[in-house]
Amino acid sequence: MVAGREYSVSVVKRLLWSRRWMIVIPFVVVSGAAIAFAYSLPNLYQSETTILLIPQRVPETYVRTTVTTRLEDRLRTMREQILSRPRLEGLIKEFNLYPVESQKLLMEQLVLYMRDQVQIALVRESSFRIAFTYGDPVMAAKVTEQFATAFRDENLRDRELQADSTSRFLESQLNDAKRRLVEQEKKLEDYRRRHSGALPNQFASNLQMIQATQQQLTALHDLANRLRDRRLELDRQILAQQDLMNVAATTPPPAPIVPNASPNTIPGGTPAQQLASKRRDLSDLQLRLAADHPDVQTAIRQIEELEAKVRAEAASQPAQTTRTPVAGPPNAAIGAAQARIRELEAQKATIDGQLAQNEQEDQRLRGLIQTYQGRLDELPTRESELTEITRDYATLQASYQAMLTKREDSVVAANLERRQIGEQFRVVDPARVPEVPISPNRLLIIAMGAVLGLALGLGTAVLIELMDTTARTDVEVGAALGLPTLAMIPVVDTDDDRRRRTRRLRLEALAATVMVIAAGAAAVWKFTAGN
């Protein structure tokens, strides 16, 4: 670049005109190449369809679905399944896609290329869009329709499979819960069988049994006391009959003997009567007090003393009434007395048998009372053990009922999916045959080529100008040489110069025209060949 050179508007115009071919040639060449490239690219058409998620037709309050995955997650899973290599390879072979590319590329490369041409995007929470790009608009629409069908079928199959899997899982859990519940029921049954009668809900019955047994024991004691009194009465009657036999067999005594009179009579009644009263008192005390209570022991000692007195009285009566028998045959009175004695002895034996039975019954009843009392004493322990068992049983039963309800709901939900009345994918915007290609954008490519060619030409002109050291004015000459300029020799155009300049201009115009025509012809040829 020459020092001191100034670039005014006229200077710039002159420079651009002088280097017009440096600008025009790159512009024309690059623009023509851009046109040729733009029309050499094949047309790509994109067909798309919109699919809407339709909720199940049965209200959720009646049938609760077992498929709760979000649409976004389901799309991610189904995308991997539908865009898998076997699926895409089958589509490529079925529709004979990419016939030219298949001669140069492997099937794996074609599958990767086709996967890049498929777009799946979530439009809203309940809808998504499928788009496929291909060179043939009709084929693009067909493949897009195939993708939509694949998504619908895959959704139905996945939902049915998931519902069946959920139903089978709940079935296995239900069987396990049932098994554990049956085991707990058997355990509870065995416990109730082992401790029958000592369970907490049998407290009232045990208490009632104790009271009823005590009443039976009281009645038994009263009966025993009456039998003992009756036995004493029979002993006295036997003694009286023996006295009658002695009287009948001997001379009558000077003074009559009163059979029932006794020198050992105790105030308050005879010893036999007192003995019966004390026995009744002892029975009452035994029902109310323990066996080692002082009152019970005192009553037992008094009864023993009275029994000794009664025996002593019975032993003394034959001695008091003994008479010297008179030899001779027994009379009728003696026979009657003997018969009476045998009758009384029979009654006495019967009473003894009854007393022995009463003694056995007494022991049995006391054993029952101890048994029932032992059950009552064990009641806190049994209640704690039964509470633990029933708590586990109640928990297992609630778990089983809940699992049974879930299993039934899952079965209904699975039937819902099999009949295809659950959630479904419905095509709301079917795939259409595109009329306008989405690629390439030829105007943009040509415009970018023209801008690039113009920028290349201008850049070349500016670079040459910066590298040019030719001085064109007196100022530039003075600045370059450092000497003052005395005169300037003007340019003298001759006729030859003008003729050469005219021929050069014509050649330049012809060359520019040829270049433009060549670029246009190349573009038209490429476009025609591409179509």
Question: What's the arrangement of secondary structure elements?
Answer:
Blueprint: H1 9-18, H2 20-40, E1 45-54, H3 71-82, H4 85-95, H5 107-116, E2 118-124, E3 127-134, H6 137-194, H7 203-249, H8 271-288, H9 294-320, H10 332-377, H11 379-418, E4 424-429, H12 442-467, H13 474-481, H14 495-530
Antiparallel strand pairs: 1-3, 1-4, 2-3
Report the order of strands and helices: HHEHHHEEHHHHHHEHHH
Envelope shape = rod-shaped
Report strand %.
5-15%
- Distance between the terminal alpha carbons, to the nearest Å? 51 Å
Structural class by helix and strand composition: mainly alpha
Structure, described:
The protein is mainly alpha-helical. It folds into 3 domains: 9-37 and 463-530, no CATH class; 45-174 and 412-429, Alpha-Beta Plaits (2-Layer Sandwich); 201-377, no CATH class. The chain is 70% helix and 6% strand. It has helices at 9-18, 20-40, 71-82, 85-95, 107-116, 137-194, 203-249, 271-288, 294-320, 332-377, 379-418, 442-467, 474-481, 495-530; strands at residues 45-54, 118-124, 127-134, 424-429. The protein has a 4-stranded antiparallel β-sheet. The longest helix has 58 residues, at 137-194. It is rod-shaped and about 215 Å long. It starts with 8 loop residues before the first helix and ends with a helix. Mean pLDDT is 77; it is low at 251-267 and 319-329.
What are the salient characteristics of this protein?
four-stranded antiparallel beta sheet, 14 helices, Alpha-Beta Plaits, mainly alpha, 6% strand, 4 strands, 3 domains, rod-shaped, 70% helix, 531 residues
Quick take:
This protein has 531 residues and is mainly alpha-helical. 70% of the residues lie in helices and 6% in strands. It has helices at residues 9-18, 20-40, 71-82, 85-95, 107-116, 137-194, 203-249, 271-288, 294-320, 332-377, 379-418, 442-467, 474-481, 495-530, and strands at 45-54, 118-124, 127-134, 424-429.
